[in-house]
Structures are given as C-alpha cells and as structure tokens.
Amino acid sequence: MEASKEHLSAETVPGYLSEVPGITAHIDPHAVETVREVGDGNLNLVFIVTDSAGRRLVVKQALPYVRLVGPEWPMTVDRARHEAEAMQTHASLSPEHVPALYHFDLENHVIVMEDLSDHRVWRAAMNDGEQHEGAAGDMGLFVARVAFGTSVLGMHHQEQKHAVARSVNPELCEITEDLVFTEPYVDAGRNSVIPANEPDARELAEDRAMVEEIGLLKWRFMTAAQALIHGDLHTGSVFVKAADGGPRSTKAFDSEFAFYGPVGFDVGALWGNYLIAAARAFALGDDDRARWTLALLEETWGSFESEFRRLWPERLDPRVYSDGVLDRLITDIQVDSAGFAAAKMARRIVGLAKNSDIETLPEELREGAARGVLRSARAIAVERHHDAGPERLAALAGEILLETRTR
Predict the structure, then answer these.
(1) Lowest CB count within 10 Å: 87, 215, 236, 261, which one?
(2) What is the spatial distance between Cα 294 and Cα 24, in angstroms, rounded to a whole number?
(3) HSE value, Cβ hemisphere, 13 Å, CA-based, for 180
(4) Looking at residue 100, what DSSP letter applies?
(5) For residue 110, what are the β-bridge partners?
(6) Across the strands, what pairs with 250?
(7) Using CA atoms, how far apart are residues 226 and 220, in angstroms rounded to an integer?
C-alpha cells in the first residue's frame, strides 16, 4: 500500500505551501493567518488556508486508509491522482461547474484548489430548507458535457481508449461495488438501521426482483465504460451559491471515484439523493418543498438531454451514429439512471455511510422516511423498464413517501 511521505497538519501546511510553484498567485504562504481542518468526509484530510489579505485556498490530502473507519481499512492514495485528472478533464469541458485546480503533488498525494467557502454543500442547504433554483439543471449540463466529451462521440477512439485505461480505479470502484450493489442485500457486518426499520431492511434483502435488478446494475457499473463519470455525484458532492444579485454558482467536487463507467450512474446518483431529500421534507410536513424537490429529477434530466442533443452534431464519426442512435442512447441512459437511483437510495438507508437528510430526523420521523425511501427504491428498480421518465418516477416515489411517513 502506497503511503504519503508527509501527512499534513494545520501546523505544517504553511511550510508545505511555501514550496508549491506559483502558489503566490492565490495566497501568500508566508502570511498565513489560519489553517482550519474541515475534512468531515470519509477519506481525506482537508484544510482551508487563509492569508493576511483574506485570500483562501483548499489543501486536500489522501490518507492511506478510509478515514471513516480507520487504518484497519487501507485505501490507495492514488485516488488523489484520479481526482486531479478528473478535475482537469471537467475543467476542459464544463469549467464553471468545478473548482479550479491550482496544484497537484503526485508524491504526497496533495491537491491544492480553489476555496469555495462562500458556497454551501448542497445537501446541508437542502436539509436547512434552502431552494437553490437552477442548481439541478446545472448538474445536468455538467454531466452531459463530460459524458459527450469523454465518450467516443467527442474523443478520437484511440485517445479515448488510452483515457479509459488511465482512469481504471479498482480500489474505489470496489467500494461502490460492495457498498452500493452488494452489502445492502448480503449483510457483510456494516449494515445498520434503527430497530423500527429492521423489517424494511429484511424486505429489501428478500425482494427477489430487487436483488435481480441490483445484479444487472452491478454488471452495468462494472462493464459499461461509456464515458468518464464523477462516480460519487450526490448532493454532498456539490457546492451551491445563491445568486443574491450576482451569478448563480454550482460546482461538483470530490471526484476521486472518477472512472470510465455508465453515464446513467451520475444522473441516477443525483436522482436518488433528490428523492431522499424529498423524504426528509415530507417527514417534516413541508409538502410544498418536498414537491419542489421531486421536480429536481426532471430539471436535471431535461438539462442533461437538451445539452447532449445540442452536442450531437459535433460527434466525431457520424457515419453510423444516426439520430436514431441518439434517441436509443438517451432512452438507455434514462433507464440506467432510474436503476442507479434505486441502488443509491437503498444503500444510504441500510448500508455504511448514510445520508444526514434521514439520519438527523427525530427517530419517530426517521422510521417512516427510511421506509418510504426503501419502498420507493424497490418500486423504481422495476418500474424503470416500463417508464423511466423522471416525472413518472417522482410521482411514484412521492405517493410512497406520503403513504409511509410517520407523525
């Protein structure tokens, strides 16, 4: 297992930055006033650094283990390279939707990037009842641009194959394969729910139709190298900033799970997290906000499809990629998106690394919200083969979430 030569701390970050080429364009490392460690995620050290002029940046270092668990779960630090290279690709295709990358240190597995402290993590904002208009559409645009630009539609086929090989990310893909597609159905000792939801977890694992769909989705995830995907594009991996008289800002971050996979995985991750956020709103009795949240599925999808279709005339090899092929691709991506949404929903209730949307609810409300998410996931996994449209899926989930909520 690779290890960093130096594990950074709040005390050593200024000295580290003083040796980063060109960093004075973004911060004065000799006039650092504060270094704040804010890494509340599952994997990394994250520092926000501020100098005497008020300029800020972020320093992120990959640890050689899963921070959520500890050294007993070793983890490749090469994920920092995957994140840095994904950020570079994202910036070349949709620069307004990612933080700027200032420096990548391969030896110490450190990324230095733009600070977005004037933004909020979208999940936290939604948990507080904020409605960031346009953010869901921004993410649809981002996914479409990256999907088209990194597929054989937007890249020469030989260049694309080299990119696929370089993006192979087995250790982090294994986390997804285990936590999303396997462990919720075959408890490996890391699953948990509150006692009231234990029957719901058993129903999920014993639902043969659901387990069969998950098997197909796992196969799709592991074999469909369609384009570079973010790989972990939930509402906790998106920063949002309200317009407040200025431009709206929506930025995807934490792309260390990036690899060449099925495009629908990113769309589905967003859809699934919108539905979990809707479950929270329904549980709290805020039905209007819940319905607004359900509509985000269509907003993301509409933006994705419109942008993908807009880019279609730019495809590099139109000889057999006809407009009919485009229609079929769009349909396939939508069906995949629905399935991956269901998988993401289920794992966030039953498996390791849950969502604060549900976990921060009072226990008596959490019971119904969690039950609604699991039942919605089971329904969507099957319904997608009949109608995978976001409006239909939102309506289906909305009915279930209303029916199951507890008061």
Answers:
(1) 215
(2) 44
(3) 27
(4) P
(5) 61, 105
(6) 240
(7) 10
Start-to-end CA span in the chain (Å): 49
Tens-place pLDDT, residues 303-348: 999 999 999 999 999 999 999 999 999 999 999 999 999 999 999 9
Residue-wise pLDDT tens digits, 120-177: 999 999 999 999 999 999 999 999 999 999 999 999 999 999 999 999 999 999 999 9
Identify the CA nearest to 81 among candidates 166, 192, 186. Answer: 166
Three-class SS state of 372: helix
CB 103 within 8 A of CB 18: no
Q: Which domains does the chain have, with CATH numbers?
A: 13-114 (3.30.200.20), 120-404 (3.90.1200.10)
Answer for the pair 337, 388: CB distance below 8 angstroms, yes or no.
Answer: yes
Residue with tokens 């690709």: 89
- Beta bridge partners, 59, equal 47, 112
| Alpha carbons 256 and 167: distance in angstroms, whole number | 10
Q: Quick one: tokens of 188? A: 């490996």
User: Which tokens belong to 38?
Assistant: 């804010």
Separation between Cα atoms, residue 128 and residue 288, nearest integer Å: 14
Query: Is residue 72 classed exposed, middle or buried when 0-12, 13-18 and 19+ CB atoms within 10 A define those classes?
Result: exposed
Residue 253 CA, distance from chain mean position: 8
Q: How many Cβ atoms are within 10 Å of 300's Cβ, its own excluded?
A: 27
Asked if residue 2 lies in contact with residue 64, where contact means CB atoms within 8 angstroms, the answer is yes
Encoded amino acid at 405, one letter: R
In the chain, the amino acid numbered 85 is: E
Q: Do the beta carbons of residue 396 and residue 228 sit within 8 Å?
A: no
